[in-house]
Amino acid sequence: MDDAILVLNAGSSSVKFALFGAGTLEPLCRGGIEGIGSRASFGGAKGPEAHLFDGVELPETSNHEAATRWLLDGIRRSDRLSLRAAGHRVVHGGPDFSAPVGIDDAVMAALDKLIPLAPAHQPHNLAAIRAVAKAWPGLPQVACFDTAFHRSMPRLAQIFAIPHELTDQGLVRYGFHGLSYQHVADVLPGIAGEAAMGRVIVCHLGHGASLCAMHEGRSIATTMGFTALDGLMMGMRCGAIDAGLVLHLIEQRGMAPAEVSEILNRRSGLLGVSGISNDARTLLASDEPRAREALDLFAYRVVREAGSLMAALGGLDALVFTAGIGERSAVIRSGICRGLAWAGVALDETRNAANETRISEDAARIPVYVVAADEERPIARAVLQQQKC
Ligand code: ADP
Questions:
Q1: Whole-angstrom distance, CA of residue 135 vs CA of residue 146
Q2: What gap in Å lies between CA 98 and CA 323, rounded to an integer?
Q3: 120 lies in which domain range?
Q4: Same domain, 273 and 227
Q5: What's the gap in Å between 108 CA and the centre of ligand 1?
Q6: pLDDT in tens, 341-388
Q7: 341 and 257 share a domain?
Q8: Is 158 within a domain?
Q9: Which residue ranges are tagged as binding site?
Q10: pTM of the predicted protein model
């Protein structure tokens, strides 16, 4: 029997999963369940062990617990794999969790207390942990946090200019997308050599979007803040915005906090500016001037924030694109890199159009790379490390 590690990423209505071989950390299969809470369905799996889930129906009524049990039953059917541990993506580790942690009752109690910091995500992450504990008692479990990678930021990059009592109560910049940045930090030395240990800006551009300034493979600044609403313009989120505008909506326009939240989190960004779609592909295919303006603003915001991170880093040795837009949109990468030409960024447009790994001109001062996002592998790696301890 080969040892395997299960990685779960549980959202409000979905569970993404991946199974890794413990020896090689090669993915054995990846897949997902969607529609939890309404009509649950198995979205399929890919990889050499995907057959484990063939031919067994997932009940439509599945909640998180039933979906997790269904997944674990699939793994139990294997006569080749022995599940050794499970790792979970947990959005918030708060001020204290700066590394992956083995789960016990005390850790769960601490993670429960962080729910108010990420009410839309944390409860589902924790529900998945409890579901595994129920369906497979005794299986070691490890929590890996989206915020942990940024705990290395210097204090000035973490605190806001608000009364220190509020800072002391944990109202600080946590930053997110940390597992994606961890993966880039893990693989970049093999791609970029020495530059990987220098001053690097990573652009994670998906539905959610943020930038991370890394030095020696560690985060020193990032664009997301206390919540994942800060920083770049995103698919539906506004990103950094004058807090006075929020007050205006509440105090002058009489909007309820929930209405303001809906506007800033779900009706802004690419969707709000274009009035058409939150999907970059739809906007790229549109002739509407508002679609153009939304994409132009998206690139402009990345350029502005990248300039700010360059100042925090004191220069730049490499630029990296990752996640849906970052990996696949040559047009958007090109627009961003044109805005950074002053810093020595110059793309080879043939390589860019082909989504090659290195897309900058050979002679350019700043190498530019495309790295496929993988938020599951760093979790599997962390689980293995915990197991060795
Ligand atoms: P998530 O943040 O939910 O993990 P992804 O990383 O998959 O999302 O990124 C989703 C975004 O990537 C969407 O805005 C989608 O339009 C965009 N995207 C995916 N493929 C392409 C493409 N070929 N060209 C432009 N944008 C793309």
A1: 25
A2: 23
A3: 2-145
A4: yes
A5: 33
A6: 999 999 999 999 999 999 999 999 999 999 999 999 999 999 999 887
A7: yes
A8: no
A9: 9, 16, 89, 204-208, 279-281, 375
A10: 0.95
